[in-house]
Design a protein that fits this description.
The complex is a heterotrimer of chains A (157), B (428) and C (872). With 428 residues, chain B is α/β, with parallel strands linked by helices. Chain B is built from 17 helices and eight strands. The longest helix of chain B has 18 residues. Classes of the chains: A alpha+beta (157), B alpha/beta (428), C alpha/beta (872). At the A-B interface, helix 2 and helix 5 of A face strand 3, helix 8, strand 5, strand 8 and helix 13 of B. The structure holds flavin mononucleotide, iron/sulfur cluster (SF4) and FE2/S2 (inorganic) cluster.
């Protein structure tokens, strides 16, 4: 499984735009993730080779950032906020409901490969608490009730 | 002029203006004026006179910061200088920069350009957190627009001033917002804080003089240039200039972002949010985000600015007012924060990397009703050890201990009650 | 500028701006620390080194700061004893121990563990953390190092050394928050040839010496002896540790002018050749074993009948001198090619003429422009390559200093320096993995072109118009305040050395030079004069001597096969004294086993002309004595102790008088009489009493050093620097304790760094340059590749290192391969003989050459041409 030609090209462009391979490492990871959903070992190595950095150097960054996924994720990633404002507005109930609905816990992917559920820190949606980010565009949704999230999941299915 | 000069032009649906639309609203007038009429020193003095304080949390006088940079930069000789715009906004409870990024990208960009002009920066890098994809997209679009309008590049408007600008998208880590970590992040290093001194103004991005400013701070600058320092000061109810974006969340009826005069009180803000949820009683509030100390009923009328809140034992921080009502358990709340800070530690220094997970587990233990006297002792120990600045490498740990410290002080009874295995508060 | 500060009432003088932790450590005030390191500077990560400092004279409150991040200034008041500071330090340890597995009983590091020392020092002793520990999965990092990540305390020293200091790029920090991980992206061999230093850089047991781990002994059960690396001309200082008569591991022995805190992996793991299966243990005649008595008788008869002696650059100066005494100066020859023998003598002569120009490694680190002529430093003198990497940072350090950044704030210096590099200019046939990444100019040239370039640079310095490269290099060297030129015998060509000397002379002033000889004692051998083995063959043919004594030398390694065959063919009988079985001993008629470097005392003379003494790390055995003892018994002289032999050498060669100063004599008395190799924290007399024996009761004698093997005697700071057996002082048992043994941090050992420079300040005469030697053969120029892991005879005999060594390599430039109709992977004939390695095409090689792994595929020798063709 190799990276798409346009991903490789985009990584090269990023290296130019960011003023060097090193400064473009995170962008390269994001490009890989945008194209492939997550960053596999093979793709990481390919991106590193494209930039002329080592896999260790690229993985050092990849494993630092919480939004770079180094294991497979579902088609839709649900980033559920576990910050205080969301908690104060019932985020735990939403969490319990969605976990039950999908039959997975945080960090897991549904067996059909559709959904991955992750807990994340405050997503800057406190005025819409409890809030979540959905999908590759990190679309902010909220305030969520358990029912609403149900609906969103149904729609996504 | 409206009472909300900073956000008044934002559309209700938050869709950003095009360059043409924004120009019709007076956009880039300040830049044109400054490039024609003001020397960089004039601009620095103007911003200093306006009393604008950094909105990223520390509240340092922006003009003074720029002035110091101009001085420090002299020693660095010829070469590039940088302005980094801090759009990381990951402090729990903060959601103010989101609006400015999404709905008012041109205002921020103009502010950044003015700042760059003032400090002699040659490149602006706007760092935006990953959760704000819409904001980053709006900025990217706006940059392309002004590039084609000739407002970016070399010799802008024939002024001799040259500048480039780009967006650096982050990927989710709170520590990226710490200014030296942000510089590491842009360089492609692990976003770990760097030692100070040397200060970024002396040796920042790629070793060159650098200023890091918050999104809200910079968004204020065009207004100051447009309407003057006195006008800006006049917006405020206190000594500190301007309006402030207060983000009110938690147990209020309508959590929202409010632009109000600097020094507006928590009571007013809560009222504007429709009061406490379901008419309940206030238990406490954090006036400036997760890393600020709790205040209670008695402090509802403290003017919310840097000076007054500091005197009251807390801080304005990012102006993110988090409200706890009588049904909100302080122990559980602080435990949420602790989990956050423990998870967001960069892992460089021992107190934070190894201490915070312990604190977090101790609080979880209490919340679960499994604490003992030793749990409280250990929590207090962490507070005593790590609260003073300078114990950890950067202020993440210091900030993380603030709610724990003030929680132990203010809610000693609630903490004690948890030892009996029972939360005395009960959930809403 | 010197400032005065007070620490808990005591007044101390320090350099303005130095970091407070270093000042304290240098003054014997122990503050616990982890991330700080003398060579790596301050990082401020561990937060272990807290002290209280007071602002002005009126400040009674003060504040807690990290001493490693605090520059000292005049009048600074400090309290280390402060209650709050010391409590903070204890709690930092408690934090660090939260996830630590408390596995000291099964941890290699225990007993010499900085974490243990610091834990005890801070007084943290009871565990209050009750939750689950974070656990990591370990990696297989190859044959040299173990990996046990659960012991990690995240001081970031490993990556700061491996990446920042040594330039490795395959080790890194992963993850974040309480879950940081130090390792590789995936399992696999750590690529850097300096990786072994991680075992000492790591203050706990994450990285350890794998060979030692597999033949493990506790630090306090091992005896450590000062020694010298026998693996290249740099002469790094070592500790060799043994238990039960077996060498277990090698560690760095600090020397401020040379290796500092770090070794290369050849130096660290190569010495384990002394426990090789190839060790010779009994005399042999043909294939038949014979008794020592018979063997000596047989040797005596052959010598009486007339024998010439062939010395060795891997044998000690004393052993070579003993052989020379035995056979007489006219019958003593260097065990290398004539060309190499003359070249190393010439190098010694050039250095002796201007000893002030010789660059120590610490001086190399401070040079501000460097030209390397022909030497593949990472392979031939690896530790010097590491020093050059530090030199390349000079420009960045200078810019950072202009910006007011303290030099010890290493990370800030890297940033403030804006990536500036001091000029490091390489003209070499092959890429250099350590230096190419920092080189400002990397010219790939064949050996003849390298020499020509060198002469052109010298000419350009003399004002003549030369080609652009030469003029640029000359200009850069001329503009430097402290230029350095490095050359050596690596190309088998005198011309590069002559050019280097001419450049140094032309630069004059503070210009420095380093001339790399092929082996640890090449200069020692050169000082005893003697031509090489071609001359030896001629002498044999002339008669009357008909037999050959070969001293600790596989000749097939050091001279072209044809020369060696001629020598062996001309001899009636060959007597070999060696510790390792090799092709030469296989071909010898009579073989007498002798001690390896770790079983005897002796001296090597390094590239600086510094004589350095090593001592027996394991008790010498009567059956396998030092070769000089055998030679003495055979008639070299009535010597029963090394000092007697040294006296005799000096009597004969007064110019070697300095040799005596390399180390104190065996009669040297310390505070408690002799020194001892036994460490302080003894587990009691019985610890050494295995199976009812009590060797400690009658420690084996060692007439060749002032160090004993017994439990009694002086240790630690009571010993003179050349006799140090370790750095432990009360409470400090790890390599970090070296701070208690130096005059100042990174400065010389108290009493001066050991070793004696043989080239005195008076200088010497320089004779005519060596005339050019005709290049023999036809075809491509042959370059023997001295691989850092496998390039020497002894390093290949170390099983640990052999597991790390690459397969032998045969390299051609693509253009040459194409011309010869060869493709990658082809089998190849060299001068008609099949080559054991298949062809590798290497675009970064200079054209017109073939590179062959030294030792395994090609012997050293003069520059020559070989026919390369496809094997059909
Ligand atoms: C742990 C930590 C996180 C921070 N996060 C942010 C952030 O997300 N956004 C921000 O503007 N400032 C943040 N800051 C403050 C910055 O370090 C810096 O002071 C600020 O960006 C300066 O801008 P200002 O002068 O305009 O306020 C953070 C500081 C710390 C210690
Ligand atoms: S306090 Fe230390 S570990 Fe925590 S974020 Fe700052 S530097 Fe990193
Ligand atoms: S030694 Fe000072 S913080 Fe680590």
């Amino acid at each position: 499984m190799t990276l798409k030609a346009e991903t490789i090209q985009a990584i090269r462009t990023a290296a130019h735009h960011h003023g060097g391979a090193k400064a473009a490492m995170l962008e390269a990871l994001k490009l890989v993730q945008a194209a492939e959903g997550w960053v596999s070992d093979a793709h990481l190595a390919e991106a590193a080779a494209t930039l002329g950095v080592t896999t260790a150097e690229l993985d050092s960054l990849a494993t630092f950032y919480s939004h770079i996924f180094r294991s497979p994720v579902g088609e839709m990633v649900i980033l559920l906020c576990d910050g205080l404002s969301c908690y104060l507005n019932g985020a735990d109930d939403v969490r319990d409901a969605v976990q039950q609905k999908l039959g997975i816990r945080f960090g897991e992917t549904t067996p059909d490969g559709k959904f991955t559920l992750l807990n994340v820190c405050c997503i800057g949606g406190c005025d819409r608490a409890p809030a979540a980010l959905l999908g590759p565009d990190r679309k902010l949704v909220g305030p969520l009730s358990a029912d609403q999230l149900d609906q969103l999941i149904e729609d996504a299915r | 002029m409206t009472a909300t000069p900073l956000t008044g032009r934002a559309r209700p649906d938050r869709s950003p203006h095009s360059f043409a639309e924004w120009q019709r609203l007076g956009g880039y007038d300040a830049l044109r004026r400054a490039l024609k009429e003001l020397s960089p020193d004039d601009l620095v003095s103007l911003v200093e006179a306006s009393g604008l304080r950094g909105r990223g949390g520390a509240g340092f006088l922006t003009g003074t910061k720029w002035k110091l940079m101009r001085k420090a930069a002299a020693a660095a000789g010829e070469g590039p200088r940088y302005l980094c715009v801090n759009g990381d906004e990951m402090e729990p409870g903060s959601f103010k920069d989101r609006l400015l990024l999404e709905a008012l990208p041109h205002q921020l960009i103009e502010g950044a350009m003015l700042a760059a002009y003032a400090i002699g920066a040659t490149e602006v890098i706007l760092l935006v957190r990953d959760a704000y994809r819409a904001g980053a997209a709006a900025l990217n679009r706006a940059i392309v627009e002004i590039e084609s309008a000739g407002l970016l590049g070399s010799n802008i408007l024939g002024s001799g001033f040259s500048l480039t600008m780009r967006v650096h998208g982050s990927a989710g880590r709170y520590i990226v917002g710490e200014e030296t970590a942000l510089i590491s992040a842009i360089e492609g290093d692990r976003p770990v804080p760097r030692a100070r001194p040397p200060y970024p103004a002396q040796s920042g991005l790629w070793g060159r003089p650098t200023i890091v400013n918050n999104v809200e701070t910079l968004s204020c600058v065009p207004l100051i240039v447009q309407h003057g320092a006195d006008w800006f000061r006049g917006l405020s109810r206190t000594e500190e200039g301007g309006t402030k974006l207060y983000g009110v969340s938690g147990r209020v009826n309508r959590p929202m972002l409010i632009e109000a005069p600097m020094g507006t009180t928590a009571r007013e803000l809560i009222e504007r949010c429709g009061g406490i949820r379901d008419g309940r009683r206030l238990r406490a509030f954090q006036p400036g985000g997760g890393a600020t100390a709790f205040l209670e009923q008695a402090e509802l009328d403290v003017p919310m600015d840097f000076g007054h809140l500091k005197k009251a034992g807390s801080a304005l921080g990012t102006g993110a007012l988090i409200v706890l009502d009588e049904t909100s358990c302080p122990v559980a709340s602080i435990a949420r924060h602790a989990r956050f800070y423990a998870r967001e530690s960069c892992g460089l220094c021992t107190p934070c990397r190894d201490g915070l997970p312990w604190v977090s587990k101790l609080l979880d233990q209490l919340e679960a009703g499994q604490g003992t006297a030793a749990t409280l002792e250990l929590l207090q120990m962490h507070v005593d050890l790590a609260s003073p600045s300078g114990r950890s490498f950067c202020d993440l740990m210091t900030g993380a201990m603030t709610p724990v410290r003030s929680g132990l002080e203010r809610f000693a009874d609630v903490f004690a009650a948890h030892l009996a295995g029972r939360c005395p508060v009960g959930r809403a | 500028m010197t400032v005065k500060i007070t620490i808990d009432g005591r007044t101390i003088e320090a350099k303005d701006g130095e970091d407070l932790l270093a000042v304290c450590l240098a003054n014997g005030i122990d503050i616990p620390y982890f991330c700080w390191h003398g060579a790596l500077g301050s990082a401020g990560a561990c937060r272990q080194c807290a002290v209280r400092v007071y602002g002005g004279p009126d400040d009674t409150v003060g504040k807690i700061v990290m001493s490693c991040m605090t520059p000292v200034s005049d009048g600074l008041r400090v309290s280390v004893a402060d209650q709050e500071a010391s409590n903070f330090r204890a709690r930092v340890i408690e934090w660090l121990m939260i996830n630590h597995p408390h596995d000291c009983p099964v941890c290699e590091e225990a007993g010499s563990c900085h974490l243990q020392d610091m834990t005890i020092a801070t007084g943290h002793h009871s565990r209050r953390y009750q939750f689950d520990k974070r656990t990591h999965r370990n990696q297989d990092l190859g044959p040299l190092l173990t990996h046990e990540m659960n012991r990690c305390i995240a001081c970031y020293r490993c990556t700061r050394f491996y990446r920042d200091y040594a330039g490795g790029r395959d080790l890194d920090a992963f993850g974040s928050h309480g879950n940081v991980y130090f390792g590789r992206a995936e399992d696999g061999v750590l690529e850097s040839p300096f990786a072994g230093n991680l075992a000492e850089v790591c203050p706990t047991g994450v990285f350890n010496d794998k060979g030692w781990s597999q033949h493990y002994a506790r630090k306090w059960d091992m005896k450590a002896t000062p020694s010298i690396c026998p693996h290249c001309a740099v002469g790094c200082n070592l500790f060799v540790a043994e238990r039960g008569g077996q060498v277990r591991r090698v560690q760095n022995r600090y020397h401020s002018a040379l290796n500092g805190y770090f070794l290369c992996d050849r130096g660290r793991f190569g010495p384990l050749h002394v426990v090789s299966e190839r060790r010779l243990t009994a005399p042999r005649r043909g294939n038949a074993a014979l008794s020592d008595h018979d063997a000596i008788n047989a040797a005596q008869q052959l010598i009486a009948a007339g024998a010439i002696g062939i010395g060795s650059p891997r044998a000690s100066l004393e052993a070579n001198a003993a052989l020379r005494r035995l056979v007489g100066p006219e019958r003593f020859f260097a065990g290398v090619s004539d060309v190499e023998a003359r070249l190393t003598r010439r190098m010694a002569e050039l250095l002796r003429a201007r000893p002030s120009q010789i660059a120590s490694l610490s001086e190399i680190e401070r040079c501000d422009a460097v030209l390397v002529l022909g030497e593949q430093l990472t392979d031939s003198a690896p530790r010097m390559a590491l020093a050059l990497r530090q030199a390349s940072r000079g420009a960045e350090r200078e810019l950072a200093a202009q910006k007011g950044v303290h030099q010890w704030l290493d990370q800030a210096v890297r940033v403030a320096g804006e990536g500036r590099r001091s000029p490091i200019m390489l003209a070499t046939p092959l890429p250099d993995s350590t230096l190419d990444p920092v080189a400002t100019l990397a010219l790939r040239r064949d050996p003849l072109q390298v020499a020509a370039l060198g002469h052109a640079v010298a000419a350009a310095l003399a004002g003549r118009n030369e080609d652009r490269d030469a003029s640029d290099i000359a200009r850069t060297l001329r503009a430097a305040k402290r230029p350095l030129i490095i050359a050596g015998s690596g190309l088998g060509l005198a011309d590069t050395v002559e050019a280097a000397a001419a450049i140094a002379v032309a630069l004059g002033g503070d210009a420095k030079i380093a001339l790399i000889a092929p082996e640890a004692n090449s200069f020692g051998l050169a000082l005893l004069s003697g031509d090489g083995i071609e001359a030896a063959t001629a002498a044999l043919r002339r008669g009357p001597a008909r037999h050959v004594i070969v001293l600790e030398n596989d000749l097939f390694e050091r001279a072209p096969r044809a020369s060696v065959e001629q020598l062996l063919g001309a001899a009636d009988e060959v007597i070999a004294f060696d510790s390792l079985d090799n092709e030469t001993t296989q071909r010898a008629n009579l073989v007498l086993p002798v001690a390896s470097f770790s079983e005897q005392a002796g001296s090597y003379v390094n590239y600086e002309g510094r004589a350095q003494r090593f001592f027996a790390a394991v008790p010498p055995s009567a059956d396998v004595p030092a070769s000089w003892r055998r030679l003495a018994a055979l008639g070299a002289g009535p010597f029963t102790a090394l000092d007697q032999l040294i006296d005799a050498i000096i009597a004969e060669r007064p110019e070697l008088a300095g040799l005596k100063g390399a180390a104190p004599e065996a009669s040297c008395q310390c505070a408690h009489g002799h020194g001892t190799r036994t460490p302080r924290p003894l587990s009691g007399r019985t610890a050494d009493d295995r199976a009812g024996r009590d060797p400690a009761a009658t420690p084996p004698p060692d007439p060749d050093s002032a160090l004993g093997f017994g439990m009694e005697g002086s240790r630690g700071r009571e010993l003179p620097p050349a006799l140090l057996t370790g750095y432990e002082t009360h409470g400090l048992h790890s390599a970090n304790a070296v701070t208690r043994f130096v005059e100042e941090i990174n400065g010389p050992l108290r009493g001066g760094d050991p070793g004696a420079r043989l080239f005195g300040p008076e200088g010497g005469a320089v004779s005519q340059a060596l005339p050019p030697v005709a290049i023999e053969g036809e075809g491509l120029l042959l370059l023997p590749l001295p691989d850092v892991f496998s390039g020497t005879e002894t390093s290949r005999a170390s099983a640990v290192l052999a597991a790390r060594a690459p397969a032998p390599r045969l390299l051609l430039h693509p253009d040459d391969a194409e011309r010869l109709g060869l493709a990658a992977g082809d089998a190849v004939l060299i001068n008609g003989e099949p080559c054991a390695a298949r062809l590798t095409i290497e675009p970064s090689l200079a054209r017109g050459m073939v590179a062959l792994s030294a030792g395994t595929l090609a012997p050293r020798g003069p520059l020559r041409r070989v026919r390369v063709e496809a094997a059909r």
